[in-house]
Amino acid sequence: MTDDDLDQFLAAFRSLAEAAHAASPRSADVEPLLPPLREHLGVDPRSLPVLTEVVTGMRDVDLDVALERVIASHGGGRLLGIGGGEQRMHMSLSEIVQQAGQWSHQFPLGAVDYQRVATGPDSERRTVAFGLHLFHVGSHPVIVLQRRANERHGRQGTVEVLCGDEATASTLLAQIRAAMTEHSVLRGQVVTFTSSEYGPSAAGVTFLRRDVVPREDVVLPDGTLDRIERQVLTVARHRDVLRAAGQHLKRGVLLYGPPGTGKTHTVRHLVGASPGTTVILLAGSTLTLVSVAAETARALQPAIVVLEDCDLVAEDRSFGHGMQPLLFEVLDALDGLATDADVTFLLTTNRADLLERALAQRPGRVDLAVEIPLPDDDARRRLFALYAGDLPFSAAALDAAAASSAGVTASFVKEAIRRAVLIAAEDERGTTDGDLGAAVAEMLSDAEQVTRSLLGVTGAP
């Protein structure tokens, strides 16, 4: 069979398929995709180039907000859907247009796909998951395909611009990027990223409440909290003065000490005392997203990036076997920000001795390292009073509990108060001083050695 014979066969087969489709009862209900696109553009859409930009999954809502604002600024437009089922999810806009031109029934006009997505701890937005925007930028007709990221189909989110003027398409993409940053739903929020087996580009976002932890509820040695607040909060308050004086704003703060001493509690206080600041919390498996977090923080500053238990990824290389790519991502993230970026990297660790020396000692990566130690006698007394709240414990009982529990952590104190309430509840009566003494004695017994270890208490108190 010659090439001409093959072409004739394919043309005949296509004609036969289209004739069969036209004869079906449902064909009258199908509206082809190409005619409205051709009418809007004034030319065959198959003849035009498509500019595509990838949007990470965590910025899908920002894209929806940005498109709404940008299209409105150009006088508004129309929103169309595309039919075709699952197949359209695997194709670019240019491929869809080409296929629709060859097979008029394959990608007909259809319903717009929507999806509800969180925009805060208690809010959500209906966003376009798959739809075509038809509008004008000046005198130039434009078509934009908005596509939400879809892990199941192995596709990242995209915005694809079909326009006869490439400069207009490039300008439009720049406007969309700027609007995504200016009107981001992440700005000023407290979020954590959710990792994905499909890689960082498919990461999601979980919005958290910004709890306010009063300063008096942070029990640390005298002057310790002052030093931390000065580096994190005071720098932010005086950012304009520092910039004018040519001083850097980017800073790294390391909180180190045994488990259960209050590092995370201190972080919660700093977050609550930073209203309007974008906060990104990474811990466990999400520490792998440190580069994405740094990019997001740079775009949405002022920002704080919290790396909990950073020794899990920034361990001294001499303790490992070979190169640790995640360690270098942490270092690059700390180094990659401009000096005038109002971004704080707030790191916590239980093992400062294992941290990579380049991370812990080099200026510009970590500017302040503060130990959060085991509470001393006075701190334990304050902790027992703090966690007791309105419970009817006498001052003498609180003093005795603090005196008998040298070497314990804040977590130990919190659990002791809870157990005292539980002991009384089991007897169906109110809590007494004796319950507190019994709870502390129980937790200091040999039988509770593992429990003490889990609460950060090492050795025998």
What is the strand and helix layout of this fold?
Blueprint: H1 3-23, H2 34-41, E1 50-55, H3 60-73, E2 77-82, H4 93-102, E3 109-110, E4 113-120, E5 123-137, E6 140-147, E7 157-163, H5 166-182, E8 190-194, E9 204-208, H6 224-237, H7 239-244, E10 251-256, H8 263-272, E11 278-282, H9 290-299, E12 303-307, H10 325-336, E13 343-349, H11 357-361, E14 368-371, H12 377-388, H13 395-403, H14 410-426, H15 433-444, H16 449-454
Parallel strand pairs: 8-11, 10-13, 10-14, 11-12, 12-13
Antiparallel strand pairs: 1-7, 2-3, 2-5, 4-5, 5-6, 6-7, 8-9
Helix pairs in contact: 3-5, 9-10, 12-13, 12-14, 13-15, 14-15
Top keywords for this entry?
461 residues; alpha/beta; Rossmann fold; 7-stranded antiparallel β-sheet; 7-stranded mixed β-sheet
Helical amount among residues, as a percent range? 25-40%
Average pLDDT number: 85
Order of helices and strands: HHEHEHEEEEEHEEHHEHEHEHEHEHHHHH
- Whole-angstrom Rg: 30 Å
CATH class descriptor name of the largest domain: Alpha Beta
Overall 3D shape: elongated
> What is the CATH T-level topology of the largest domain?
Rossmann fold
The number of helices is 16
**Could you describe the largest sheet, including whether it forms a barrel?**
7 strands, antiparallel
DSSP strand (E) fraction?
15-25%
| Terminus-to-terminus distance | 90 Å
